[in-house]
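[Discussion] Sanity-checking designs against the backbone

I'm trying to build intuition for which residues belong where. Below is a structure token string of 286 positions. I'd appreciate it if someone posts a full sequence so I can compare it with mine line by line.
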């Protein structure tokens, strides 16, 4: 099993860090957790084509986690030429409506989709890629999840848990993937909470949101619905995870001295190995 940090950022755009997205490769499956800004391009850049993605799990519908879903769905459909299975898509409600409003018959991209289905040259390109006519519309298979749900495939099981973030405006989930090679947890966006700690219990790796230094978050009133340095360390310690990876860093952690302070904060409460992950960080659990 390999985990790639496609995006470790937040809504604040940096050239090297913007939005959230993680790619898990296990067996023949390529499972994407969130699809933030530029995720599709960043995956292609590191060698994974949209057509290879088999499953998409969304933690919540904040744009820094989902804004690149249209690029993934449309490029996967176009390049797939009707020869690949529908993308299995999971997330809290209203994920099904969100997908429908992108690629459905009355969705945001209906003109593009209708043009590619109807125009002779688009049909020809589709056939040259191995597709047949009439050209099928984009197909996805949406499953809306609630805390406690499990999704089981041959090589993996994903479990969803409640993440305490910006309710009641958005439903938010954290995910754990269990495989023969190990267990990895993605907190998504959450404040430290018992449901995510329980989800992470005994996992090999916890990819935790780390918005900022704990003291600064508390001083500035940003410690509600979000996890900071000490919170991430405490969750890792309480859950007994073997390794902690800090992701979803806010802009104030960008300077090197701030990262050093972040790691020192975590080390004050968690004595396991900690990584401050950059975009492109990879973890091989095989
Ligand atoms: Zn969020």
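Best answer:
Here's mine. Compare freely.
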């Amino acid at each position: 099993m390999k985990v790639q940090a496609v995006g470790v950022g937040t809504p604040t755009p940096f050239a090297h860090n913007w939005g959230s997205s993680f790619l898990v490769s296990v067996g023949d499956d390529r499972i994407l957790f969130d699809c933030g800004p530029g995720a599709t391009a960043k995956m292609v850049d590191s060698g994974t084509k949209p057509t290879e993605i088999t499953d998409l799990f969304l933690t919540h519908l904040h744009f820094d986690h989902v804004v690149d879903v249209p690029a993934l769905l449309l490029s996967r459909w176009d390049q797939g030429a009707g020869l690949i299975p529908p993308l299995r898509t999971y997330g809290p409600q209203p994920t099904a409506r969100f997908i429908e409003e992108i690629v459905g018959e009355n969705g945001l991209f209906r003109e593009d989709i209708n043009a590619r289905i109807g125009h002779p040259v688009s049909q020809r390109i589709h056939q040259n890629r191995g597709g047949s006519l009439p050209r099928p519309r984009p197909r996805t298979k949406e499953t809306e999840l609630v805390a406690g749900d499990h999704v089981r495939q041959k090589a993996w099981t994903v479990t969803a848990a409640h993440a305490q973030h910006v309710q009641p405006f958005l439903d938010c989930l954290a995910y754990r993937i269990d495989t023969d090679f190990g267990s990895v947890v993605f907190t998504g966006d959450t404040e430290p909470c018992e449901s995510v700690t329980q989800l992470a219990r005994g996992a090999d790796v916890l990819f935790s949101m780390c918005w900022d230094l704990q003291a600064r978050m508390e001083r500035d009133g940003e410690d509600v619905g979000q996890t900071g340095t000490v919170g991430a360390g405490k969750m890792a310690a309480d859950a007994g995870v073997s390794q902690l990876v800090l992701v979803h860093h806010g802009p104030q952690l960008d300077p090197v001295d701030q990262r050093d302070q972040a790691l020192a904060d975590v080390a004050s409460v968690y004595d396991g190995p900690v990584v401050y992950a950059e975009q492109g960080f990879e973890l091989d659990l095989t």
